[in-house]
Amino acid sequence: MSPIFLDAIALSYRPDLDVLFLRWPQPVYALAPREVYQQVLELAQETNARYWLFDIRSRGPLSDEDVAWLRESYFPTLHGQLGHITHVAYLLTPAHAKDPQTQESALQMRTLPWYGQGADFEGFTSETEALHWLKTCQLMEVAK
Fold this sequence. Notes:
Layout: E1 4-5, E2 10-14, E3 19-23, H1 33-47, E4 51-55, H2 64-82, E5 86-91, H3 94-98, H4 100-109, E6 119-124, H5 127-143
Helix pairs in contact: 1-2
């Protein structure tokens, strides 16, 4: 599938890797995050993609409202909409990965009922490591 460009993002699915890629090369204010995440969901439904890599190194922070929407609406409904757990690798800058607020937010999200059921995630500063984690998730699912 060819990439979809929505003003400030590149969204594509690589069947050879079985990975959906979201590359966000511009700050978040360039477009509405909820629209982007809806496009991700639509492409995931079309391709049955359950392994996602989100490159958010240039995106910048989301608003508190958008973070709450992801926690309370988007991720909790993924399993019902896709029928499987979705594994999301976030590609972060080193500073973002070390940010105490980012770390605390990730810890809080891991305690929510949908985590590990409808979706799970990890943060990485290397795309190679992110893809390795997604491949490990794929292999673990095959072994089940």
